[in-house]
Design brief:
Layout (H helix, E strand, L loop, with lengths): L1 H19 L10 E2 L4 E2 L4 E2 L4 E2 L4 E2 L3 E3 L4 E2 L4 E3 L23 E3 L4 E2 L4 E3 L3 E2 L4 E2 L4 E2 L7 E4 L4 E5 L4 H12 L13
Parallel strand pairs: 1-4, 2-5, 3-6, 4-7, 5-8, 6-9, 7-10, 8-11, 9-12, 10-13, 11-14, 13-15
Antiparallel strand pairs: 15-16
Keywords: Acyltransferase, Repeat, Transferase
Protein name: DapH/DapD/GlmU-related protein
GO molecular function, one term: acyltransferase activity
Amino acid sequence: MRARLRRRLRWVRRLFWRKAYRLRYVHETVLIGGASDISRDIVADEYAYIGPGCLISAGVHLGRYSMLGPGVKVVGNDHIFLKSGTPVIFSGRPKFKNTVIGRDVWIGANAIVLCGVTIGDGAIIAAGSVVTKDVMPLSVMAGVPAAFVKKRFTDPQDEARHLKMLSGDVCLGEYCDKLS
């Protein structure tokens, strides 16, 4: 009985945040931690998580199973600052590429991702990192600016198995292991 009530409350909470932020392209299973500033055009796939205090600008696609820790920011990198004689605030903004955060990406607390970056499936970004360039799938990145630390899996078979799972149908928890 309690588990059913908890599931129902979680569903109501998800519905509330989607309606409060007017998020039309956010899947019903996405969980938003609250007190975040999220652009209305965000696309968020199944079982993604947006932690409290996140700032997400326009043109972001958050993949299935991805998690944004508290205070993550997806912003900037879009001011024209080379116009001589014009203050930056009045110089305009160029058309920017969308920011793509792949499936099963974990971005740690207070990390910053600059607009237009693509983060590959299964990547991990350490807390406090600043991502200025595209990130390869299954990479672990850390630092300012974020640099490659290691591969998430050392065994190529584990890599292939994980990427195959990510490209398939939605699966939950231990059920995923039974698919391979």
